[in-house]
Amino acid sequence: MKYVFITLAILAFASVVSADRLVRLYDVSPGSVTEMIEEGYDVANIDMRNGYVDIMLPERQLDQAALLSYDYEILPREWGELLPENSKGAGYYYDPDENWAFWCSLAENYSDLSDTPVSMGQSYEGRDIYFIEMTSPVSGYKPPIYFTSLIHAREPGGNSVLIDFAMWLTSNYDGGDTRAAYILDNSTVYFVPVANPDGYVYNMPNGGNQRKNMNFTLGDGVDLNRNWGYMWGYDDSGSSPNPGDETYRGTSAFSEPETQVQREFLIDLEPIAAMNYHTYGGMLLYPWGYEDILAPDNDLFVGWAEAMTAVNDYAYGTAWQILYNVNGENNDWAYSATDVPRMYAMTPEVDDAGFWGSQNDTTEIERICNECRPMNIIFCMANLGFVGISGESEVGIEPMLTLNSIYPNPAISSASFRITSSASSNVSATIYDTSGRIVASFETGDIAGGTSNLFWDVPQEIPAGVYTARISDAAGNCDSMRFTVMR
Ligand SMILES: [Zn+2]
């Protein structure tokens, strides 16, 4: 009896310590969302399509919600925290030990496809950040594609999606689905399932709600997805200089071991593309995040996003178009080509029920995996040049120069580049391999405005593989597209 009482007392204390609740605020203007972010509120999800914002509030301060919006709803407890009474680790999510066991058993069961986990370096508290390499025995140059989850430690839904995709690839390679075979025969897929292991372990077994890492030198951790080295600390929008804020960016770019370790690994690996999984909200984000500008490859991203979200109807766009500006974020660095060749990096925000809402509901976890699997497949296929890409900018900015298509794709001995230019100009084209090296370049001479075709004889010395064609004119307009060369 005494034992029971003490246990209850500890549980009660634990729940007081971690008692945060997600609150949904309706009828909030974009301006007041910006204010909330600037004031340091923990903004968990913005859904402008449906007109609400979710914020995390300590249970003691729930009355603040009424000050922010007259129309609000306190969301179920399990959306915001791993329930203390849920005794099974992370519930139906994979806790840290279950993750490790899963990836080890995958390597055992599919030893020809999946390697055992390997450490790429250590976290702040000295835990291994491990990766898993997956590819088929088919030889040849196989560009790396990189998947991560749990850089924010309270977002386990993304981890479930990675586990599901790894299972799908391995179990369908042999005869189940030709797309799995195509992906593993033509690329090497890397998984980093627990990018912030200290935070995730801290959140176990019950109650914790840590988003940042566990470097408490100045506050209560650093937001690892604001600590990357491109436009780090550009401004204070969505990235905070205050150590107590959930978006605290750290003392300098790459100040944290977790981002340093990934940076070094990526410099060695040079992936062509990355999917960095977060939750929650049902969105697909791509660069740029730091400023209200479109990436040179915006049409490409839009085209991919359109195809990738056809099944799940996720909202897509840059962070500033559908969420809020962020700097020091992972995608911007990967795409910036600052330390590595340009990587086509995207961030899905899985449509989970809050951060932990599916902890006791395996059918909900199946749902999010089912709706993200097609997104992963299309992303890999698109990056491997398998899928023809076409897309138009949605935001009303008329591109001055567009590379509409490359035909045939895959190209064998020659290719036709269909381009549209708003004025007559001298257009030059450069062909890059997946490491960013130039393998060919040529000029058109003056072309008239409008649509025209550039013909290119593929030099014999160019090996089969995936390439990026980039066209540009003297005024600095440019556009690019991936394509494949076959031999
Ligand atoms: Zn996140």
Characterization of the model:
The chain is of the alpha+beta class. The chain has three domains: 19-75, Alpha-Beta Plaits, CATH 3.30.70; 96-383, Zn peptidases (Aminopeptidase, 3-Layer(aba) Sandwich); 401-485, Immunoglobulin-like (Sandwich), CATH 2.60.40.2550. The protein is 28% helix and 26% strand. It has 13 helices and 19 strands. The protein has an eight-stranded mixed β-sheet, sandwiched between helices. The chain has a four-stranded antiparallel β-sheet with strand order 2-3-1-4. Helix 5 (96-109) runs parallel beside helix 6 and helix 6 (156-173) packs across helix 7 (178-186). The longest helix is centred in the last third of the chain and has 22 residues, at 362-383. The chain is globular and about 70 Å long. Bound molecules: zinc ion (ZN).
